[in-house]
Design a protein that fits this description.
2 copies of one chain form a homodimer.
Chain A (H helix, E strand, L loop, with lengths): L1 E6 L7 H15 L3 E6 L25 H11 L4 H12 L2 E7 L7 H10 L23 E7 L16 H4 L1 H9 L4 E2 L3 E3 L7 H18 L2
Parallel strand pairs in A: 1-2, 1-3, 3-4, 4-5, 4-6
Helix pairs in contact in A: 1-7
Chain lengths: 215, 215
Amino acid sequence: MNILYVFAHQEPKSFNSTLKEAAITSFEKKGYTVRLSDLYAMEFKPVLDRADFLQPKKTDIFNPFLEQMNASKKGTFALDIMNEMEKVKWADMIIFQFPIYFTGMPAIMKGWLDRIFAPGFAFNPVNQNAYETGLLKGKKAMIVISTGAEESWYSKGGQHGDIHELLRYITHCTLEYAGLEVLPSHIVFGAGKMSEERVGEEVRSYVEKLNSIFT
Amino acid sequence: MNILYVFAHQEPKSFNSTLKEAAITSFEKKGYTVRLSDLYAMEFKPVLDRADFLQPKKTDIFNPFLEQMNASKKGTFALDIMNEMEKVKWADMIIFQFPIYFTGMPAIMKGWLDRIFAPGFAFNPVNQNAYETGLLKGKKAMIVISTGAEESWYSKGGQHGDIHELLRYITHCTLEYAGLEVLPSHIVFGAGKMSEERVGEEVRSYVEKLNSIFT
């Protein structure tokens, strides 16, 4: 089993980093191969711009969609994109772990998706490759998130609303759109203030969930 | 009327730029003052990291939430953040315009929110300043977006689902959360391929909508 772990937290001593390390250790114990994209540590460039395309199709006007389609066909993305695409192709499963910023990904992870899940690579609207026929079909994905808000805020009738509904733009419109089979999200609520005891419990609970998935 | 126009498209000759220019011209005709944050042109930094904090509260471990709370209190954010916060304070209304990337903001705009709508500035979970008591209360906001997908994909029962439901994580959990009064989103569907005629129609329709709001 090949696992690509895409991770976005700035601090190696954070709860998120502890969770990520525990997951990787548990995968390696099973004999799985894990490759980590630690986005802040890599100083990953999140902005999709002209520099992403080594052989632009048009130089007078920049159309990101056309350039992505062209570079997907010809393999002419900038090196950092090609590297991440190679990891995606290699992976049987992709885990995205991040603290929620405004019920979404931190910009650095959103930029990973904007640049790596390019049309022509992850989906193709021209050939109707999406959802059932998405180009990443056969692979699995899962999001692992922590929230500052308590669970009651993210429940049906809570101030924010049902988090699973709110995250459909990621789980459905992004990951399933690319053909990925999406496993239930792993969510740690109220992660802003946690006792050491609770950190331990959350780590155990996450590793147990991973073990139950990969039996 | 003071309008802050936060804009994210790489190409000055794009449809999005045309739409933005038309809006600004129409505002100026009315005698409103418009300030533009053209994020790609500004080379706006989307990544929230240690460099955002001129006088960090902790140097041994980086906790973004605590640093943002502290810098909001003391006014010690990096200069680019302080500049944008000053524009937000000045504005009666903020317009966010962007092409949808994966039913969300391009990373560069997501990073504007991650860094500018900081706790202690836009909301404050410690003092329960959110929604009705959000710190930007009294101001208005609106999102103006273009989609590659056709409207049928983004309708109830469509492949993606109802776009207004999908965008609630922005309109409700982000903008209303900060206390902003959110106006109905302006959406241009299927913006990938447009005839010159349709571009003209879309520009007229957008300016008319803005005129109907600001009477």
